[in-house]
């Protein structure tokens, strides 16, 4: 009977897993995860991602044990770890799902070459995109740089494949191969993270499926509610999708009946389209995590200001909407999309700090840190990306707060110092009359910071820097 290694990567689930299903129907299965952050180049998983990965691997192992198997953990370069395990178990095939990040693609080529040298079959299955990045081509075979034509083109292609369901009975090998201990990988933060991640969701496929179910029950209200961070308006499925606890094809198929027409902008399925677009851009422009897509920004004169950067990271800028977002990030490992845009714009335009500093901080603190989406989001915010917001469109953090958090409920939740202020003052506490601040026991500069930048002046400075860079 054939024995196949199933190399889990960003598909940490048993359901809807084509590689696992194919291996299970061919014979015995050896499920393995290789921990090789050194192979991720400049983007090894950040602290919050490691925390999530720990939980997700533990959950995957538990689910496998229920079916009589266990997850084999091996550290070191994937090619070496997998060839060694293949020799130990007599496996004649390695099945895995594709990934689209540049370093992950190199890793998978190395694995395919190493196992083929031993006469072992290497088979790659569909990755975590609805439409594989290399399958969407414009006229003359070029890749897309603008979302709308990209997504329209996807609409002309065959629909995403149906999720493949349960893998059926799993048979393992005997004796079970040795595994390293998850605890020894030290994925959990060793230093005291304070309140960090104390309110993050629980990793794992089972809770992911539960979260999807809960979201579907309110998915019809998505388009109306998605921009208001105080509402439970979005799915919060991003870490589930990033780690592959849910197959994106499953989310698509189950959301279809509840969402706006799939190829329309603003609906839930359209956001999955942006996710595919991020993968498309990263696949075809692998330099974008480090360099702007728009070459005119290569020489842009960003400011170096470590005190301002630290104030932003800690949620102490004096702009409540920005600070609420940064503190939500610290506590939950997530931040609402509207607030990500506001916080990013503030860093890049009001503080004139390089978008890569922000991308790095998000990379370390987001549980959904995803190279494709993070790069797309930061380059969009900085105005230097594909299909980006123009640099001269500068978010006013006070107006954004008044528009998307009119009563201040979101700010009150994450910036408790201001919780007594009413909606009129909460987004610009420095404009509140002194007696109102006093009545609520707030002294600016003591209980909550004065704004670290004057938005009107900062805006003018940003526009001047932009003008000079052209
Ligand atoms: C500066 C910045 C950085 C970002 N960094 C990341 C990141 O590291 N990882 C990440 O997954 N998303 C990132 N995003 C995109 C977006 O903010 C998150 O995907 C979204 O907030 C996740 O919440 P949700 O699951 O409730 O989204 P929903 O609104 O429920 O959307 C469903 C899914 O669609 C995808 N999606 C939604 N919006 C976008 C988008 N704008 N671009 C690409 N995919 C999208 C996500 O996978 C999301 O889970 C970033 C956005 C910005 C502006």
Structural account:
The protein is of the alpha/beta class and 470 residues long. It has three domains: 2-127, Rossmann fold (3-Layer(aba) Sandwich); 128-160 and 205-284, Serine Threonine Protein Phosphatase 5, Tetratricopeptide repeat (Alpha Horseshoe), CATH 1.25.40.80; 295-469, Orthogonal Bundle (DNA Cyclobutane Dipyrimidine Photolyase, subunit A, domain 3), CATH 1.10.579.10. It is built from 20 helices and five strands. It has helices spanning 18-26, 47-66, 78-89, 102-117, 147-156, 205-218, 222-225, 238-242, 248-255, 268-284, 306-314, 320-332, 337-350, 355-365, 371-382, 397-404, 409-414, 423-426, 434-439, 455-469, and strands at residues 2-8, 27-35, 72-75, 93-97, 121-125. A five-stranded parallel sheet has the order 3-2-1-4-5. Strand 4 (93-97), helix 4 (102-117) and strand 5 (121-125) form a beta-alpha-beta unit. Helix 3 runs parallel beside helix 4 (102-117), helix 10 (268-284) packs across helix 15 and helix 14 packs antiparallel against helix 15. The chain starts with a strand and ends with a helix. The structure holds flavin-adenine dinucleotide. Flavin-adenine dinucleotide is lined by residues 226, 234-238, 241-242, 271-272, 274-275, 278, 337, 340-341, 344, 362, 366, 368-370, 373-374, 376-378, 381.
């Amino acid at each position: 009977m054939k024995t196949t290694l199933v190399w889990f990567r960003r598909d940490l689930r048993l359901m809807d897993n084509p590689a696992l299903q194919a291996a299970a129907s061919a014979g015995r299965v050896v499920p393995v995860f290789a921990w090789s952050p050194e192979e991720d180049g400049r983007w090894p998983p950040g602290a919050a991602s490691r925390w999530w990965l720990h939980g997700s691997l533990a959950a995957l192992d538990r689910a496998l044990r229920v079916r009589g198997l266990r997850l084999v953990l091996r550290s070191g370069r994937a090619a070496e770890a997998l060839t060694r395990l293949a020799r130990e178990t007599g496996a004649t095939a390695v099945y895995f799902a594709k990934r689209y990040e540049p370093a992950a693609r190199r890793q998978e080529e190395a694995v395919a070459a190493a196992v083929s040298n031993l006469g072992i079959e290497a088979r790659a299955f569909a990755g975590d995109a609805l439409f594989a990045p290399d399958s969407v081509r414009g006229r003359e075979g070029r890749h897309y740089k603008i979302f709308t034509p990209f997504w329209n083109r996807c609409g002309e292609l065959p629909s995403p494949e149906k999720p493949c369901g349960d893998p059926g009975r799993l048979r393992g090998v005997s004796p079970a191969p040795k595994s390293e201990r998850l605890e020894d990988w030290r994925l959990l933060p060793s230093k005291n993270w304070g309140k960090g991640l104390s309110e993050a969701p629980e990793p794992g496929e089972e809770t992911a499926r539960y979260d999807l179910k809960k979201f579907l029950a309110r998915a019809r209200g998505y388009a109306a509610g998605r921009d208001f961070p105080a509402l439970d308006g979005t799915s919060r499925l991003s870490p589930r999708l990033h780690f592959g606890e849910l197959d994106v094809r499953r989310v698509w198929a189950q959301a279809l009946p509840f969402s706006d027409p799939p190829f329309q902008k603003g609906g839930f399925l359209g956001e999955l389209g942006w996710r595919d677009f991020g993968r498309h851009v990263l696949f075809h422009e692998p330099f974008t995590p480090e360099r702007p897509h728009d070459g005119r920004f290569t020489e842009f004169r960003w400011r170096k200001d470590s005190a301002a950067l630290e104030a932003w990271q800690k949620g102490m800028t004096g702009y409540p909407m920005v600070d609420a977002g940064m503190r939500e990030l610290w506590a939950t490992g997530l931040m609402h999309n509207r607030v990500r845009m506001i916080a990013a714009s503030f860093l890049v335009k009001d503080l004139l700090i390089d978008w890569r500093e922000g991308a790095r901080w998000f990379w370390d603190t987001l549980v959904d840190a995803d190279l494709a989406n993070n790069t797309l989001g930061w380059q969009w915010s900085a105005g230097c990306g594909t299909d980006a917001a123009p640099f001269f469109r500068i978010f006013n953090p006070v107006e954004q707060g008044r528009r998307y958090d009119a009563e201040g409920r979101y700010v009150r939740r994450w910036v408790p110092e201001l919780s007594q202020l009413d909606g009129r003052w909460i987004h610009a506490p420095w404009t509140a009359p002194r007696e109102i601040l006093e009545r609520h026991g707030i002294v600016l500069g003591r209980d909550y910071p004065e704004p670290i930048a004057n938005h009107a002046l900062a805006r003018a400075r940003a526009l001047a820097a932009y003008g000079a860079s052209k």
